[in-house]
């Protein structure tokens, strides 16, 4: 995290950090890809697979055992979302929604990075 604090990202023109005309140009280029039928089919396949192979099997035992089953639904849905985003955006399955609910180190680091970026944006200082 210290390295992240020391990085100078002011010259970063990635779509996540761009402003003005640079952002508009990058958004126009990428928007065509997000509207294709093949992407929609891919999204449906990835989400359906994650839903049927991991989310439902994770929730089913708790639903069947009404006596003492307690789940952190926010954690489970965050894992579901993060796994889907990583598969769709990067083609990599982190498996955070595996039955053992492994430690989500990358997801935690990502949340910290988002918090830092939002703090930078909200501070009004470039």
Automatic annotation (TrEMBL):
Pfam families: p450 (PF00067). Its cofactor is heme. Keywords: Heme, Iron, Metal-binding, Monooxygenase, Oxidoreductase. One of its GO terms (molecular function) is monooxygenase activity. The keyword Coiled coil does not apply. Belongs to the cytochrome P450 family. PANTHER family: CYTOCHROME P450 (PTHR24296). This is Cytochrome P450. It comes from Linum trigynum.
